[in-house]
Amino acid sequence: MANNFAKRAARTLARTTEVAATMLLVVVTCLNLTQVIGRYVFSTGFNWTEELMRYLMIWLMMLGSVACIFRAEHMAVETLETRVDPAKARLVKSALYTVAAIFCVFVLVYGWPLALRNAAQVAPASGIPMIYPYMALPVGAALMLVQIALSWVVGFEPDQTTDDREGAS
């Protein structure tokens, strides 16, 4: 029962972050198109679009990483897994996920105060408070930690039933 709950929670977290990352990618694409049209059609560019695209791409990467962990599409050291006995591959995966979790803890622990220290600063071109771009690090790291924890509960293989149902539709 806990395993089914963890699977549903992991899938929901992955889907939510995928949707958010997709929406951010659409916004970044529109901003880029606006910049190109402004520059080449109207001979004037918007100085705030490049800055905003950069900040949105940070959020996109952090949110997309959560879904990558769920689907086991993240960077991995597969060489280590293939060199060990298949019975011990799960132990190697657990060790690799542990290293990733430790990295996420560092990003969370150091990213949170960094974001708070920059709360009063504003971006020069767009004027948005810099806490928003900086919050991508601790928020993304926290979500990745949750997804890694769920992976430990469920197992380290991607959920194949989701992909199978999507392919049949």
What does this structure look like?
- The protein has helices at 2-40, 47-71, 78-83, 89-117, 131-134, 136-154, 160-168.
- With 169 residues, it is an all-alpha fold.
- Helix 1 runs antiparallel to helix 2, helix 2 packs parallel to helix 6 (136-154) and helix 4 runs antiparallel to helix 6 (136-154).
- The two termini are 28 Å apart.
Low-confidence stretches are: none
Q: Structural class of the secondary elements?
A: mainly alpha
Give the biggest sheet: none
Gyration radius from CA atoms, angstroms: 19 Å
Q: How far from one another are the termini?
A: 28 Å
SS summary, helix count: 7
Report mean pLDDT, rounded to a whole number: 86
State the helicity in percent bands. Answer: over 70%
Shape assignment: elongated
* Secondary-structure element pattern, one letter each: HHHHHHH
Proportion in β-strands:
under 5%
